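writing this on my phone so excuse typos. first protein, seq and then structure
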Amino acid sequence: MSLTLFTTPTPPQKRALRKEELGQALVEALALDRNGATYAVVPDLPLLDVPNGTRILMLANMVVAKLLARLNLAPTVLGPRTVFGFAFAAMLLLLYLVQFLLALVF
């Protein structure tokens, strides 16, 4: 996987999965299978690992997967650790931004 910062990747498209893509996702899910895990398959996104199947975690996984797919940094499987790490970094960045803005105002 190469990191290119100056090219604009094509955004993920809304489309139906082809049978080959679904079969490949099934093979990957069977290779990674853990007890109680749920894997969501969305076109042009990495395989989403949703351990307990909650809708909020699924939504967070999809948001992070779309962001990483647009940056060409998408891994093959996106698990909760990556999502929580990404959310923590975003909250930390937001905290510093708010602190900076408050320092300018006061």
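second protein below, same order as before
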Amino acid sequence: MATLSADERRGWNCGWLPRSPDAGADYPLPDAAPRPADDTCPGYLIVLPPVLEAQEAHLWWDKGQLAVWLAGRSRSPWLTLAVDLVAGARADVEMAEEREREMARQNRR
């Protein structure tokens, strides 16, 4: 976020800045994605502890090693949901990147 001015960050509803009462999140969304109910800047949200834990759990799950990461702790339904959400979000990003690559290939022809 260092590349954006404070005003730009405020326009994105940066979680590290005081929220402007009239601010509506002005950050770009991929494709025709709907505006999320929580319009706080994604850059803030992705570093919240529960999100970081879900991302870490997904990395271990993706390698088939989630039981090792859990180290005897039980796998809660919330963790399962979080890992599923991360997996879905990663798949969405990969599909969007593939569409962009395909469009670039078609434009080169």
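The helical segments are 6-11, 42-45, 49-62, 66-70, 77-108. thats all i got for now
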